[in-house]
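Long-time lurker, finally posting.

We've been working with ABC transporter ATP-binding protein (Anaerotalea alkaliphila) and I want a structural starting point before designing mutants. I don't trust myself to interpret raw outputs, so I'm hoping someone here can both generate the structure tokens and explain anything notable. Sequence follows.
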Amino acid sequence: MPINTFKEDESTRQVLKIHTLLRLFAYMLKYRKEILQVLGLMLVVIAVGTVNPLLLKVSIDDKIAKGDVPGLLGILLLALLLNGISMLCVRERILRMSRVSNLVLMEIRQELYVHIQRLSFNFFDNRPVGKILSRVIGDVNSLKDILTNSVVTLLPDLATVVVVLGVMLALNYRLAVAALAMLPFLVLGMANVEIRAHKKWQTFRQKNSNLSAFTHEDFSGIRVVQGYTAEEKTSRTFGVLQQEVKDSFIAASRLNDLFWPMVEISWGVGTILVFVLGVGMLDSGEVTVGLLVAFTTYIAMFWQPIMNLSNFYNQLVTNLAGAERIFEILDLKPDLQDGPEAEELPEIRGEVEFEGVDFSYDGREQVLEEVHFHVRPGETVALVGPTGAGKTTIVNLIGRFYDVDKGTIRIDGRDIRTVTMESLRRQMGIMTQDNFLFSGTVEENIRYGKLDATREEVEEAAKAVHAHGFIQELPQGYGTLVNERGTGLSGGQRQLIAFARTMIARPRLLVLDEATSSIDTSTERMVQEGIARLLEGRTAFVVAHRLSTIQKAHRILFVDGKNILEDGSHRELMDRQGRYYDLYMSQFKWM
Ligand SMILES: Nc1ncnc2c1ncn2[C@@H]1O[C@H](COP(=O)(O)OP(=O)(O)OP(=O)(O)O)[C@@H](O)[C@H]1O
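Top reply, 14 upvotes:
Generated this for you. Predicted structure of ABC transporter ATP-binding protein:
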């Protein structure tokens, strides 16, 4: 997929709506017991509702007409009792159904989250995080009404329609036909609206997603925004994106607004026809006053569920696009998967070999071509070279975050595609430049490297990378809260915490994308010592920017022109007076 930004709508694949619906409802099967209970409760409510007009008919035709006061009171008491029970059932139904729909939402969201976490870097490379958030939060939320109403509305209202229709036909079939005369026109009208509205609701969801992507990006980069006083520009962009959301909503809901008038007109016409016909029948004695009154109540009882059903249909049309977007992601297969024969990688000794490796991110632009190198266990290898040369790409390939297009990468002689990714990555420590910290305490952040580590192990790891000293001086020591940006900590301190997090995991293979940010000399010294401790006794690849790291490395690989141009120790490469020598002389001589 080409890179998508907040400026472009995501494309949505086309699937049959009925498939999406069935797939959604399948999640509810697990809760069939609760759903049956809800339906049972609704049956009571429908039964009481259906009996009410009959009680009215008997009261008018038999009791009031004959002056039977005790009989009338009896019917009144019965009606009170029945309706009281019905109210309790309604309350219980709402509680149970909201529990079921929330559980289903949780399940879908969890599935989506777990699935997205397994997707390869490729998926995240091309999508703004805000758009992913929009699917996990917004689109999942949009399903709530569909789920609830599929039980509360769809089945009971369909049942009501059928029951009331039966009663009406039994009471007087001619009046019944008159009441429903407009139904076929209504169905045709709705189908027509749905076809046109669906696309528009898809657009609405896409515009929402764009807004979410922009907002996320803007707040994530708020320091840059404020640093360049770009607030006005970003506010304008936000305004434009909001306007697009609003316009797409209005365009879509304009069509949906047609639903109500269509139902009301059909209802009204049906009622008029019943009265016109019914009054004539009164004269001929074919119907009684009580029956006509009861019949008008049944008309309302027939059309009200139709109204609810059309409302449900309206919600389906509105929110189905959300379900489509969720299933689209759930159906994405991770680019990288363990092969059926994949085995656990035994404890890594640390031999790494690239043999004839070709790689391209997009299948067009070659980033690496015929790369060969061999690293012995315990060696520290510094990757240096101009920006964009492919250093980070090489270390990403070692962790199998992407697959090579050609050639083989071996660890301890095993092709990394033949071992499980979990067993490979579990034994690797990967430190990226941004030293991302999660919101929580310093201790929790260090423990991230080994979730069951004790407090002693956390402190030991921090001591090993020389982070213990400064952590103790923080206001709450190891309990000090940091957030995702590491606010409250200096760049160097963030690095030291990240070192401790890696240290505690005791990785057999270390990948370190060294941060370029300059830090004060005393922290720099601590960071250097921290790095040295991390590198001890394990194979390490360092995308190196520090002269000290480079000089101490056993080997330096100079990367450029899609390949390793020079390979040797600092001394050897300096003696060779090649590309590394030039880079060193131009960049490092003043350091
Ligand atoms: N996710 C990606 N999708 C597409 N192209 C990418 C991606 N990541 C990197 N590239 C491209 O691959 C090439 C190598 O990038 P890489 O990040 O490996 O370089 P580098 O040597 O680590 O650079 P630097 O020193 O600036 O970090 C660059 O041309 C870059 O534009």
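Before you design anything, note these points.
The pocket of adenosine-5'-triphosphate is lined by residues 125, 361-362, 367, 385, 387-393, 543 (CB under 6 Å).
The mean pLDDT is 85.
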